[in-house]
Design goal:
It contains 33 helices and no strands.
């Protein structure tokens, strides 16, 4: 078994686990809304530390060896364990009547996660004998952690959090510090000569992705609080101001982390011979515990913002809100202080110097708590936002490298800022299903389709703009920021925008957010190409204005006229997408493929997280566990169909078309596969996710049968239509890539024809039948000799292409940070 190459990207199954891990943190932070006292904070931190331990063990394991079939299976099982932990986290600290015992269920899920981590490190020790000592330590202390989890489950009282913290401390005492040089006679510890993480790029990408999604926790929690309170009511100015502050705060916390990524990536590079063993040990500890503090801070910030939102939406007597409680204030300001302290520790271990600016910001945030006690909610939040803005402005002035628009290179990767933007787009996509739930008629479906196409069209325009030049530089950065605010407002206004006839406040907010995004995409076209794109930019903006006009008129007209206007709006939006994409050439195929792949991962994970979120406030029973397992099986099947070979082979063909100057083939791949068929893929994922959430909501509302609630026409049709659309789009992509097959078309048709069988069927039986009906033929078709030979040839082609396309490596000293280069130069001088 080979070791992982330093230039390998993160595997999709790793990203799926990372996003699920942050979803678990989201459910843990929701505990602060019900129990913000020190005991509640202790429990939240205990859950965070336990899940963080097992997640870091998987990140360290896959940074050494490549992700193969065995590790992918372990990642999927661990994803299911994290989902079960997320569903049972609210009942993990008290015994419950009805259903399974909450603490025992949480301990069982923790044991499954620990077993997967142990399996991964056994795999590492088998692949490289030098890591067997570390693998033995990690296995031993994972057993200690699971033992403490069971001790906490069997003694459910006030000491539960202490049990988990003791287990975490004992587990992290040695297993996290793999760089320590233990005596050779102990036969433990790393025997690697220079202590190098093989998959440096994938290792850093996993931490960056988890931090980015963690920054978005507050926005997801605000949306959940809004759905549970006054969804159809007017959006008060105070609520809009709080949303603005939450989005700004999450953006700023990411932008303060962004300058630290590049030096850290160079330091972890195994080809870096300049750093001493002491520096590498310090980096290991700072990387681990720095991100630990950052994650704790992000969870506390999310809990504080959710508490602020709840106080603003319940019993508002003043424009600025009620008096902010002491506990939420400590959570909010203390979370920002912890996040900044984690960045200080991370910077100290990476660049070997203290960051006085972030340290002063952390001290200032902690010192402001007694000064703001008793102030209104909105005042406290806006003061914090102003302080973070000042901190970011000073930091940007210190490290800014200019705002010029930089052209994209052919093999560049997706930046963290683009992943943050994609998460906001996925958040808006997830809100589309609420329209169908409120109005399950043709008009509701047409509205949902239009909003889906509108958000997708705006997102893909920004995606192509970022493919041409860097999205976090120059005017594109500011246009992306404006689009972020538009996406969050669009997602929050969607559920109640068209609940009643006429233009209510939410409908006006929706139209304003849509126009801001669409006009921004037109401005991005003009910013990139100048006068050459003036006609396309004007046409894009004009079609967007026509779409908004049709929507506004449809809200004021009767049903028949309204449907006709909605159809016209869909046509105008499609024309806007075509106008923005016409004549565009892909500058970086790898970048384009990675953006679409990340959007698919986000869609699948939101479907799974939506199921667990419905079970968060109910007693977990066997039917709920079965529904989580079946939802994981369906999403795993969808993941496998897309990521096993298709996305890599499509990227390979896109590289070939771009290098061979075949514009016709290039446009066919870009317009048909990525622009067109991915919209169908996204529609199928949204439909399946909506149906799974509806089933979970029915199961969580009250007592249900052993097989779960019966499927309605909407849920049955959503499952079958969504899966058939997904499979058909995947098959059509293979047809465009000249790999035609008849069996997948038959599977898609059989899935669609199974709708009458699922109607009125219990949920567990229906989902099991659907998994068998789709999964067995797909797996059998993939295991035929012809398809196995095709997969071997395809993966061989992709492997040779990745080797041929690799850019020449620069000398190690040229890639190092300033401190490392000076250390190298001093050594050469001596």
């Amino acid at each position: 078994m080979r070791l992982r190459d330093p230039e390998d990207k993160s595997d999709p199954v790793e990203l799926l686990l990372d996003i699920t891990f942050v979803s678990l943190l989201s459910q843990a932070s929701s505990l602060l809304l019900h129990d913000a006292h020190p005991a509640g904070v202790l429990r939240v931190l205990a859950v965070l530390l336990v899940s963080l331990l097992f997640w870091q063990m998987t990140a360290a394991a896959t940074a050494i060896v490549p992700v193969d079939a065995v590790l992918r299976i372990l990642h999927i099982i661990m994803t299911g364990a994290f989902l079960l932990m997320a569903a049972s986290v609210k009942e993990a600290f008290r015994s419950q009547s009805g259903g399974l015992d909450g603490p025992v269920l949480f301990a069982t899920a923790t044991t499954a996660a620990g077993a997967c981590s142990v399996g991964m490190w056994v795999r590492v020790g088998t692949a490289d004998r030098r890591w067997r000592g570390n693998a033995a330590l990690l296995v031993a202390f994972a057993v200690v952690m699971t033992g403490c989890a069971w001790a906490a489950a069997l003694h459910v009282d006030g000491s539960v959090g202490q049990w988990l913290l003791v287990g975490y401390g004992a587990s992290m005492l040695l297993c996290s510090n793999t760089a320590i040089a233990y005596p050779a006679r102990w036969q433990v510890g790393s025997r690697v000569a220079h202590w190098a993480i093989n998959g440096a790029r994938a290792y850093r990408e996993r931490y960056t992705t988890a931090y980015i999604v963690g920054c978005c926790l507050s926005l997801e929690l605000l949306e959940m609080a809004g759905q549970s309170t006054r969804t159809a009511g007017p959006m008060l100015p105070s609520i809009l101001a709080l949303l603005f502050a939450a989005l700004s705060l999450s953006c700023l916390l990411y932008w303060l982390y962004e300058p630290l990524i590049e030096p850290a990536q160079h330091t972890v590079d195994p080809r870096n011979p300049a750093l001493s063993h002491t520096r590498k040990v310090a980096h290991s500890l700072g990387d681990l515990y720095g991100h630990l503090l950052m994650f704790c801070g992000l969870v506390l910030v999310a809990g504080g913002l959710r508490s602020a939102f709840t106080e603003l939406t319940h019993g508002v007597t003043d424009t600025l809100g009620q008096t902010f409680g002491t506990e939420p204030l400590v959570e909010l300001y203390g979370g920002v202080a912890l996040c900044l302290l984690g960045q200080v520790l991370f910077s100290l271990s990476t660049l070997w110097r203290l960051d006085p600016l972030r340290l002063a910001g952390a001290i200032g945030a902690a010192a402001a708590i007694p000064l703001l006690r008793g102030r209104p909610v909105l005042v406290a939040v806006l003061v914090l936002l102003a302080g973070v803005i000042v901190l970011y402005a000073l930091d940007r002035r210190r490290v800014s490298s200019g705002d010029a628009v930089e052209p994209a290179t052919q093999h560049r990767s997706v930046t963290g800022f683009e992943l943050y933007f994609d998460f906001m787009a996925a958040f808006a996509f997830a809100q589309v299903g609420s329209l169908v739930v409120r109005d399950p008629r043709a008009a509701g479906a047409m509205r949902a389709l239009l909003i889906l196409i509108a958000v997708y069209g705006c997102w893909i325009t920004y995606c192509w703009a970022a493919n041409t030049s860097q999205a976090d530089r120059g005017p594109l950065r500011y246009l992306h920021v404006a689009a972020l605010f538009g996406l969050i407002l669009l997602g929050l206004a969607t559920p109640g925008a068209f609940a009643h006839a006429g233009l209510n406040t939410r409908a006006m907010v929706f139209l304003g957010a849509y126009l801001a995004i669409r006009f921004g995409s037109a401005a991005a076209l003009y910013c990139l190409s100048g006068r050459a794109a003036l006609v396309r930019a004007c046409l894009t903006a004009g079609c967007g204005a026509a779409t908004a006009g049709c929507i506004a008129t449809a809200a004021l007209c009767g049903p028949l006229t309204g449907i006709a206007l909605w159809i016209t709006a869909v046509a105008c939006e499609i024309l806007a997408v075509v106008a923005s994409a016409w004549g565009r050439k892909t500058e970086s195929p790898a970048h384009l493929s990675e953006r679409f792949a990340f959007l698919v991962i986000l869609g699948l994970d939101m479907s799974l997280s939506g199921v667990c979120a419905q079970f968060a406030d109910t007693a977990i029973g066997a039917v709920h566990i079965a529904l989580i397992g079946l939802a994981l099986a369906i999403c795993t099947l969808m993941w496998w169909l897309y990521f096993d070979t298709l996305t890599h082979y499509a990227e390979h063909r896109l590289h070939h078309a771009a290098a061979g100057h075949g514009m016709r083939a290039h446009r066919q791949l870009v317009y048909v596969c990525y622009a067109g068929l991915h919209l169908v893929i996204l529609t199928g994922m949204v439909s399946v996710g909506l149906s799974l959430r509806s089933i979970a909501e029915s199961a969580a509302e009250g007592p249900v049968a052993v097989q779960g609630p019966e499927l309605t026409l909407m849920t049955a049709a959503g499952l079958t239509i969504g899966l058939s659309l997904y499979i058909a789009a995947i098959t059509a992509m293979w047809d465009v890539l000249a790999r035609r097959a008849l069996v997948p078309w038959l599977i898609a048709a059989a899935t669609l024809a199974s709708t009458p069988l699922l109607l009125g069927c219990p949920a567990v039986d229906a989902l099991s039948l659907l998994v068998a009906l789709v999964g067995l033929p797909v797996v059998a078709h993939a295991l035929t000799p012809a398809m196995r030979a095709h997969r071997r040839v395809t993966h061989s082609e992709l492997h040779h292409r990745s080797q041929a396309a690799a850019l020449p490596h620069t000398p190690p000293a040229a890639r190092l940070p300033t401190a490392a280069r000076s250390e190298t130069e001093d050594a050469s001088t001596r």
